[in-house]
Specification:
Helices cover 0% and strands 59% of the residues. With 305 residues, the protein is mainly β. It has a domain of 134 residues: Methylamine Dehydrogenase, Chain H, CATH 2.130.10.10. It starts with a strand and ends with a strand.
């Protein structure tokens, strides 16, 4: 089977199934209201979609591209961020409006646990390389919540600035990268004491952050400046290697979700208000193509066959 790119269209309540080689949509999958974020199971058999307005988690079969399951809960209130914890076969889902993290068993799609963050507007989530620690941004609480994944308990809340949005972990160093939306900057924290060790500027209203598979660069979508910041994770400045924004790539209007292909040779950026996906060549650091999709595309994932 050929590779596919799955793109969530928030205002159309559907998923565009895109052939990335041809640059065209080959199918659409209807979802609950407001599909927001998507992740694929460890075996690649299914994808999970948080539907923030429908207060549901949809399960998509990646062979037939049909919704085969729907998971809901009385305490779901704007499900948004999610991440797959491969080693435990778990799916962690963040409920934004009541700041809870739901842990599901991937094999059965049943609820295992609920971890309240006790913060305000918890949204994005990421794991360290060993999948032993989870990091959750709290956009109104201006903090980063650190969770012990084995014990499912909060270890500390770290102040990170005004409006933390995206969070990602450098696969090479385990340093934690947080985009601070209302300050237009990136904050980098060490993985032991969580102190800020580096900062660098970004574009206007930075959203999520995604690392290339080798960790050499990270990309950040800047919603209001319509570009993508390129972060070299070992940029040499003053003789010392450190994370630094080295370039901004113009893309479509209101860029949001970003994903790399498994080789890191191509990145895809969903443009919320131009209703398309920018195709980026990370080597030349240029947007080389656009793929038309649905209305208000946001989250996306790459299925490698």
């Amino acid at each position: 089977m050929e590779d596919r790119l799955l793109v969530l269209n928030r205002d159309d309540d559907c998923v565009s199934v895109v052939d990335p080689a041809a640059g065209e949509t080959v199918a659409e999958v209807s979802t609950d209201f407001g599909p927001r974020t998507i992740e694929t199971s460890p075996d690649g058999a299914k994808s999970y979609v948080t539907c923030s307005q429908g207060n549901a988690l949809n399960v998509i079969d990646n062979t037939t591209f049909t919704v085969t399951g729907r998971v809901d809960h009385d305490l779901f209130d704007g499900p948004r961020g999610l991440v797959v914890r491969d080693r435990a076969n778990e799916l962690w889902v963040v409920s934004e409006h009541n700041s809870r993290v739901f842990v599901f068993d991937i094999e059965t799609d049943t609820l295992v646990d609920i971890v309240p963050t006790h913060q305000s507007q918890s949204n994005s989530i990421s794991l360290d390389s060993e999948e032993s620690t989870a990091y959750v941004t709290n956009s109104s609480g201006n903090t980063l919540t650190i969770i012990d994944c084995e014990e499912r308990r909060i270890t500390v809340d770290v102040p990170v600035g005004d409006g933390p949005e995206g969070v990602g972990v450098n696969p090479a160093t385990d340093n934690v990268y947080v985009t601070v939306q209302r300050e237009c900057r990136l904050s980098v924290h060490d993985p032991v004491r969580y102190e800020t060790i580096y900062e660098t500027g970004l574009g206007e209203s930075p959203m999520g952050i995604v690392f290339a598979p080798d960790g050499a660069i990270a990309l950040v979508a800047n919603r209001l400046s319509n570009d993508v910041s390129v972060i070299e994770t070992r940029f040499h400045r003053g003789g010392t290697g450190r994370p630094w924004e080295v370039e901004r790539i113009p893309v479509g209007i209101w860029p949001g979700g970003i994903v790399f292909d498994p080789e890191g040779s191509t990145a895809y950026v969903a443009n919320n208000k131009s209703n398309d996906v920018s195709v980026i060549d990370p080597e030349t650091r240029e947007a080389v193509d656009r793929i038309d999709v649905g209305t208000f595309p946001d989250g996306l994932t790459y299925l490698s066959r």
